[in-house]
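Standup notes
- HV: blocked on the assembly model, inputs below
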Amino acid sequence: MTNRATLRILVAALGMLCLPNAFAAPNESQDARPTAAIMLAQTCAGCHGTEGYTRGDALMPLAGLPRAQFIRAMEKFADGTRESTVMGSISRNLSAKEIELMANYFASFPENPPIAKGGKL
Amino acid sequence: MSAMNRRQFLKISSAAAAAATPLMAAKKASAAAAHVVVVGGGVGGATFAKYLRMYDPGTQVTLVQNEKDYQRRYGSSEVIVNHIADSALNISYDDLKNYYGVEFVFDTVTGIDFDKRQVRTQGGTTLNYDRVVLSPGITFDYSAVPGMTEELADTKIPHAWNAGPQLKLLRDQVNKLPIDGKVIIVPPPAPFRCPPGPYERAGLITQWMLERGDKNPSVTILDVNNNFPGDYNMVHLWNRFFGMNVPKDFTPFTQIKYTPEQLATLKTYDKPAKLQWIPGNQGGRVLKVDADTMTVEAEAGKFQADLINLIPPLKAGKIALDLGLADASGWCPVDPTTFESKMHPFVHVIGDSSLADPMPKSGYSANNQAKMVALQIKSLLAGNGVIEPIEMQNTCYVAAGPKNFSIFVTEFFREKDGKIIEGDQPPLLPFNASDEAYRLCRVYEESWIENFTHDTFYKPYWA
């Protein structure tokens, strides 16, 4: 067996081991996505895509962003250490608690798109 | 595949089957479930229908739309200067129908029986509702401008504020402009749909003429308003690139004025500007239009032009006016937390038609109002009451005109003491913004259009 073939099997196996998590997500997500978090996070989707899944590479995808990274980015936008267009203003309009709710919400989605559900919601 | 992997695979397969069952059950139960009717398939109506089905798949949603071949309005001025094809504005309702399970009736709503909670259409359909959400856009008050008629708008002086044939007419007129031709743009009195829009058009047309090789194009904005969102950056750029003097007594929309030091860095010109903005306090108010001589008479004098783009004063969508959902302002008063009409219960008005001041009448506002109201209606239908607090946002990227110079406006909204209030953060680029910041706005603007259209009308990318 070549190294590449082994790798391919390993990747496939890992992918499958990850699958049950995708199905478990609805239960876990109940807590990660309280209405207060949805209310805040849905305001982002106009630019960053529904549930934070973005097309193209200009606007940052938010789905699956680790919560600490989301919070750090918002803090840096707010204090100006990270340059931005709209994000400086938006981040300064949010409280630390609100940013945490949004961070939890986006972290609750898998970074890679979930499995297609056969063309229907 | 090893034995362990095979077992794992079987486990997953049965999990998949189990996961699919509740979804199907929910669909079947929906026939007896709550019914929400949406009137209007623009940004507000489409976003609402999509998100209510996402958040509350057990609720039946029927969208009544009068235009089968709908074109998005936001970003449509890019068509008139040939940045994008007219067909790029076309919207398909297939995903709302097939993926989200929204039912469609392509027809015109003629009445709503508020007591029986029924929507009636021209074609004779009657729809019962638990809640009805209207997002009927805008109507044009031609009678407010002496000399202006709907027929003229369709044939000679297009407003092109609703995409469609008038937008193509305006594009053709722009493309036929004589060298160093004269253009007049007349924005409606505020509040109106897309507050920076007429100014973006002026900038785009000026730049288009310059790129064509015109040495002295003449684009004039005759304006009843004294300011507009984004003016702080736009006036700065027009001064730098289009030879425009800062208008006398200029007080920007945000009330953030140029400091004396900043003003000293702006230029003063003594020859006519390529783009000239005459605000209301400088005589910009239009008194009448003469289509035969292509002359616009304003307080500041008479202006003859090769092209007139006059956007008449706007009001709420026709059905909202006909049903008495608007007040004397011409717009529909609503509760700021639910957007339920103050005129009738179980009726919600979102988007341009709603009186949601200080939220601008933008596509982004309509999109955000729609999602917020979807959460509220889900909660109300479940008997759980109104959700508080609420948050909404608006973000608009706007082309200033000069190539690779775009700006933005952004605001965050909450409710306080029965009113919508705006966050206190400056919603603009700073005065000393770099050229790179303006260019980045242009990059984001293009990407935003794509993501926003998807968030409003389409299924997820991965589905």
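- HV (later): unblocked. The radius of gyration of chain B is 24 Å. Chain B has two domains: 19-139+315-386, 146-312.
- Next: hand off to the docking folks.
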